[in-house]
Amino acid sequence: TLLALVGLAAQMLIHFRTELALQVPQMRPLLVTACEVIGCRVRLPRRPALMSIESSDLQAAPGHDKLVVLNAAIRNRAPFPQEYPDLELTLTDENDRAVVRRVLTPAEYLAAALAKDAVKGIAPGAEVDVRLYFDTSRVRATGYRLYLFFP
């Protein structure tokens, strides 16, 4: 029975490793070491309710006919760092029907300077600016929707 309880406790530590590392930061090195042995990863928290798109706009790029630029600001409202979310951009027609949809990973939307530090996540209360260009020569879109999510 004692061995089963120890096994259950170990399983719970591994299953709730992200939450445990957040609540008890001193345990993070132990959890990272354990994950290296069994082949898992201690990730940063993913709380979409505490992330928001503060502003966004999609405009024609100056001097380019079929090129649009997406500007957005993502804010981490949590009191702890979080992973960067994925973004779903949907271009819509005049009836608000999806014309094209694309999921953007942090590697795609982060500037080169930020991409190398992406593993550190978005700091508590921090805001990240996103600026991406898209070729719309093959689609006729009049609007857009932008969502953030964690896969």
Defining key terms:
151 residues; alpha+beta; three-stranded antiparallel β-sheet; 26% helix; elongated
Largest sheet: 3 strands, antiparallel
Q: Into which percent range does the helicity of residues fall?
A: 25-40%
The backbone outline, from C-alpha atoms, is: elongated
- Tally of separate helices: 5
β-sheet strand percentage = 25-35%
Order of helices and strands: HHHEEEEHHEE
Strand order of the largest sheet: 1-2-5
What's the rounded overall pLDDT mean?
A: 88
Give the CA-CA distance, first to last residue.
38 Å
Q: What structural class is derived from the secondary structure elements?
A: alpha+beta
Number of strands: 6
Rg computed from alpha carbons, rounded to a whole number of angstroms: 20 Å
Can you tell me the residue ranges where pLDDT is under 50 for at least 5 consecutive residues? none
Question: What's the quick description here?
Answer:
This protein is α+β, with helices and mostly antiparallel strands and 151 residues long. It contains 5 helices and 6 strands, in the order αααββββααββ.
Explain this structure.
It contains five helices and six strands; from the N terminus they run H-H-H-E-E-E-E-H-H-E-E. A hairpin with a 6-residue loop joins strand 1 (51-60) and strand 2 (67-76). It is α+β, with helices and mostly antiparallel strands and 151 residues long. The longest helix is centred in the first third of the chain and has 14 residues, at 2-15. Helix content is 26%, strand content 33%. The model has no long low-confidence stretch (mean pLDDT 88). It has a three-stranded antiparallel beta sheet, with no helix packed on it. Strands 4-3-6 form a three-stranded antiparallel beta sheet.
